[in-house]
Amino acid sequence: MSTARGREKVAFAVLGLATLLTVLPILLTILYIVKNGWDGLSWEFITQVPRSGMKQGGIFPAIVGTILLIIGTMIFSLPLGILSAIYLVEYAKDNTFTRLVKLSVVNLSGVPSIIYGLFGFTLFVILLQFGTSILAGSMTLAIMSLPVIITATKEALEAVPASFREISLSLGATKWQTTRYCVLPYAIPGILTGTVLSLSRAAGETAPILFTVAAFYLPRLPRSVFDQVMALPYHLYVISTQVPNMPTQISFATALVLIILVFLMNLMSIILRAHYRKKKQW
Amino acid sequence: MLQKKISEYIIETLIKLSGLIVIGFVFLIFIFLLKDSLSLFGVYNISSFLFGTHWEPVSEPPKFGVIPLLVGSVYVTLIAILICVPIGVGTAMFIAEVAPPSIKHVLKASVEILASIPSVVLGFIGITWLGPFLKTTFYLPTGMCGLTGSLLLSFMALPTIISISEDAIVGVPKNYKEAAYGLGATRWQALWRIILPAASSGIIAAIMLGVGRVIGETMVVLMVTGNSPVIPASILQPLRTLTATVAGEMGETVSGSDHYFALFAVGLVLFIITFLVNFSAESFLRRARK
Q1: Of the candidates A84, A121, A210, which has its C-beta nearest B18's C-beta?
Q2: Which of A225, B150, B166, B190 has its CA 20 to 30 A from that of A15?
Q3: E strands, A20-130, where?
Q4: CB contact under 8 A, A118 and B33
Q5: Strands B63-64, A56-57: parallel, antiparallel or unpaired by DSSP?
Q6: Domain span at A9
Q7: Is the domain covering B70-289 a CATH 1.10.3720.10 domain?
Q8: CB-CB under 8 Å, A84 with B19
Q9: Considering the entire predicted model, what is its pTM?
Q10: Do A61 and A167 fall into the same domain?
């Protein structure tokens, strides 16, 4: 008996050690970026254009570019994602087509981001002749974000009690009226949570925008959706690998800004989720 | 009434159409990769591509052997998975069965934080800290090598492995555990001999999804593995993965050249590998749900 207890203590200590090996590097990663990037952060840094080959000045165009890409991604992925999820939850019959849609969602979620980059390049940049542009980049990121949005929306729709639908249908409402007025409103918070989360991933992605939108050095703001833009993750890649003798403070500060942006979006989704739980009435 | 029916019909068509578009994307991704790969195989022998051991796209004549890149990808992935599976599954067991509720929330939140760190930031840390650190610690000729990539990738795969393994462990019916306790088992005996085997399908799925995540990751390996497209003799040498090759060389190729098509063929190989990995992960997940 005592050996079993003793063994348990050792085993739990080993599990604790594994957990420490997960959590400690996470803390150190954040601390490392914050400590080294903090001094480079200033109002000028986030509001000025890069100067002298990106070795001076700020990263304003990259911030704007990333925000534009987030908005573009949302515009393209949200309607398509929500409608597909509505299909899967509310309309789908158990047939081959439905199974294919489900399989496609699973498959899309596993496709490597660089493949999205290749695909976006062939379809949007070359075939549809959008060129390397905000439009092509947003659409590429939108396809990449689809599986997360669909899965989140699906879960949110499934969480709405079946009785809501039954009552609405029994009162003579059509299928769409039921979905639109009795199901969707209660699923919106869940959908938003998932969407913000997927957009925060898109904001940090580099591989899909390499050939579809990202500009190496473009110290001005875009004039139309057919313009290239700089983007934070690509900018960090460029200044840390392609520019010799880059002042490290600028690289660290860029990494810090990117992390802050992504964390803010995550925080927003956590707040949305908490708010939604509090308001839930059934 | 008729108007209502028409609008209902339009909406329904739109909804079905979006389902069709989702299928269409997967189909198109495959077709586009295949089409451009076939353009390569029209001028370059397919077996020289699949079994060639030299990737020299700009030499004369160019050599497009995918083996060095494939070995690079598999090598880096294997080491990364060996590192992160014990740590990840251990953490999942700790979160699910050992940690008190208050600590559980903190741990889950930090895993979510890790999941949200962009890969380019981890690559940057590899360049500025981990690479130089490994170089001086192990007296390596360069810190930009397979091991640096593997370590960072194992870190990146942790959230996937932890969250799905934890779901699998928590999903094991409570009465299994209670029956074990009733027979006098300690918490560890119940966890190790009863819960873990019952959760094994889910844990295997978690590992498979981790593999899919690691083998498809691009920026970290592009930034830290040294970009040397030769078959590495050891993990301490620079190497190049499938993903890094596409990302690194696409910008330099002329659209429509053999080199350009060869990169799509590399993409196709990558697509097929990740498809198989994710497909088997999904079938393990389905078995776990039953």
Answers
A1: A84
A2: B150
A3: 50-51, 56-57
A4: yes
A5: unpaired
A6: 2-40
A7: yes
A8: yes
A9: 0.93
A10: yes
